[in-house]
Fold this sequence. Notes:
Rossmann fold
Amino acid sequence: MRVLLAGSATGGHLYPALAIADKIKRKKPESEILFVGARREVGTDIIKGSGYELRLIDIRGIDRKNPIKNVAVMRDLARAGMQIRKILAEFQPDVVVGTGGYACGPVIREAKKKGIRTFLHEQNIIPGLANKLAEKYADRIFVAFEESREQFKTPSKVVVTGNPVRRAFLTAGVMHYREKLGIDEKDMALLIFGGSQGADRVAEVVSDMLIGLRDHNDFTVYFITGKRLYYDVRQKLTDAGVMENEKIHLMEYTEVIHEYFSAADLIISRAGALTVSEIAAVGKPSILIPSPNVTGNHQFYNAKTLADRGAAIIIEEAGLTPQLLTDEVMRLKANKEALNRMAQAAAEAGRPDAVDVIYEHIAAGR
């Protein structure tokens, strides 16, 4: 089987695509897999590091703030169409799978014109523009949430699968990683992150919270800031004496974030669709701070899928303060039963079979 996967090289689109590719290779090792992405995007190194072949096309997203720039966008789109047709002619895929982002739609469209079987995967409750535009060219649309079905014009195409998460999240063991990381069994372990690029308001509030908690010796904290914010956050915490606490760990990024997911008692993060699915996959309580800077406020609705089940607490950024976040953390720390109930609810919300369902549809041609 020859499979082409197209989508943005951001974590929310990229990691589901990699999970699908890995599943195909496990089931059919002889399969040929090719990724197609946008030349200007960051994150393509992750694909290259995974061992898969990557082809880049000259395409970029629509600039909604400065429409005059879209003249160049349209020029790139025409060039990308020629590049895509050449890639399809050379690779001759049996299947094309799009996982969202502006590199996805044109590839799905050109593949459909050539009679190639096409599939889309939408990670968020509220679909992105690329997948909405590509809907008519897809044979099947895989969605992570039942609530997404009504967002598409042809519900008969939609299959609710959940989000495919990396295998490491499904096989990680809690005690193994707590021991590996050297976490005291009496400590409450916090994993905190704001997405691959970081989140300014989250970093500011979390930094202030950690300054307030600096004298508490019964927390182990892993704070992943993103590369952009790392040095500023580190300087702030160093100046406040927080970094003298050996239980406070600051990181730009980690390739083994599943280890910290598994070891954590509580996760504090944004509410990207993949993050929500990974939290459910490992069955962890969470405090979710949806980004207000996303289309259709979709992170809030992603978070709501866990909060409505009692698995998460939502704090919207407009009301986020260091004191509020500290109060929620301390309340949960003092109530192990509440943490356990949230963990159970998160686990029940998970879809560990998501990638299996997607693979069966792709392999069967349905």
